[in-house]
Amino acid sequence: MINYICTTCGTQFPASERPPEHCPICEDPRQYVGWNGQNWTTLETLRKTHKNAFRTVEPGLLGIGTTPDFAIGQRALLLQTSAGNVMWDCITLLDEATQQIVNALGGISAIAISHPHYYSSMVEWAHAFEAPIYLHESNRKWVMRPDNVVRYWEGDTFVLGDGLTLLRLGGHFTGGTVLHWAAGAQGRGAILSGDILQVVNDRRYVSFMYSFPNLIPLPASKVQAIVDAIEPYSFDRIYGAWWDRVMEQDASSAVRRSAQRYIKAMAG
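User: That's the sequence. What structure does it adopt?
Assistant: Structure tokens below.
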């Protein structure tokens, strides 16, 4: 029995004798089935062709990304705190070298993920580090490998630890979540956003989409709701889902500016 992995989105499925026929995450309008059709791999195969790279992105925050890129190509973030390390978002590849490095850094006390496109092999990571996974209840249907390590939270906020708060902003998914890190950016506050707030090429702005690969926009009302939900929180920096998708400063104002620009464009 093998836990097969979708090569397009990187999601790991329950153990089976043969690959699943479909990947519901990729067949959803927010994602896509690869141009060569539905294909599968395994962790064992991936470990032979890929490795993980580590990079400090600011004191107390370490990026972990797979090279060469696999699936969507996001990198995870390891947030180091005195109460234990929190992994934000997830990547598919977990190998012995990665486990050794992460354990040397203090392991992982909790995993939190922005939305289903980054669930990847989260259960594999949770088992390896004996860490619970925190996901918003409304995204439960997208968990392809159910497990008791997954803990669902409800409502709009969830305090993960001292100065760490999960915020349900919605948008891309109903349970679309960001992590507010009050001590980030040298105490000015940071948002770990995945692509719920997508840092775009002009890094003075973010954008908001129902589907990024298929270019399906969100209605203006959803974008305004995102801005309203994040308004009470102070932050100067946004860490997106990829290495270079970082807004270094003035991020709070940029979210408001970006929403105004988006809503104006939608109105024509």
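The CA atoms of residues 60 and 81 lie 7 Å apart.
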